Amino acid sequence: MSFELKSKNITSPKRNVLLSQKAEELLNFRIEQEEYSSWLYLAMSNWLNNEGYVNISNAYKKYSDEERVHAQWSRDYLLAMGITPVTPTLKQPKNNYQNLGEILRLTYEHENLVTTQCNTLCSESLKLNDLLLFNLGQKYLSEQIEEIERTRTNLDRYIIAEKEGNLFTFEQSFE
User: Fold this and answer.
1) Comparing C-alpha atoms, which of 85, 72, 70 is closest to residue 115?
2) Which residue, 24, 30, 139, 159, has most beta carbons within 10 Å?
3) Residue 73 phi, psi dihedral angles, 5° rounding
4) Are 96 and 47 in contact (CB under 8 A)?
5) Domains located in the chain, CATH noted
6) Environment class of residue 52 by beta-carbon count within 10 Å: exposed (0-12), middle (13-18) or buried (19+)?
7) Each residue's pLDDT tens digit, 150-160
8) Residues in contact with 58: Cβ distance below 8 Å, sequence separation at least 6, in sequence order
9) DSSP 102-145
10) Three-class SS of residue 9?
């Protein structure tokens, strides 16, 4: 089977026609939110470290790094479609917390919010009939299952440790 070019002046389109403006907006929003999550967890890590929760601080630093990887998923998708991702302006995350319990509760609430956002990405991709975007949304949601389980478990373990007066052991075994 041979393939014949009909035009000798074919140029590669910069923007892939498969990606709608709405999809581009959804992906840039995902980048912004994942970057904000990274900054939020870094701010929490800093507070935790300063308060002596070094092991938990290290875990939050790792969470921060993971969120930047998640932002990169959307950047790579946009770049593959010939679109330059937007570098977002981020709001300043909170830097001071009352206690470890507040951080764990806010983390759990934040991951629930992110899960809702990822659900929206998937549902909007189906409305757009964009199954490639849906696949990326599914990747985010698969990650969120782990995030929700981890944050819920950490919060539950903290409540038990606090009742038993055993925060040192909780801090040492934090993942």
Assistant:
1) 70
2) 30
3) -55, -45
4) yes
5) 21-85+96-172 (1.20.1260.10)
6) exposed
7) 999 999 999 99
8) 45
9) HHHHHHHHHHHHHHHHHHHHHHHHHHTT-HHHHHHHHHHHHHHH
10) coil
| Average per-residue pLDDT for the chain | 91
Alpha-carbon span 34 to 37, nearest angstrom: 5
Rg (the chain; Cα; Å): 21
pTM here is: 0.88
57-113: per-residue pLDDT in tens?
999 999 999 999 999 999 999 999 999 999 989 999 999 999 999 999 999 999 999
Any idea what DSSP says for residue 17?
A: T
Q: What is the DSSP letter of 51?
A: T
Distance of CA 160 to the CA centre of its chain: 28
Alpha carbon separation from 67 to 101, 138, 140, 149, 157 (Å, rounded): 22, 16, 11, 16, 23
Cα gap 171→2, rounded to integer Å: 66
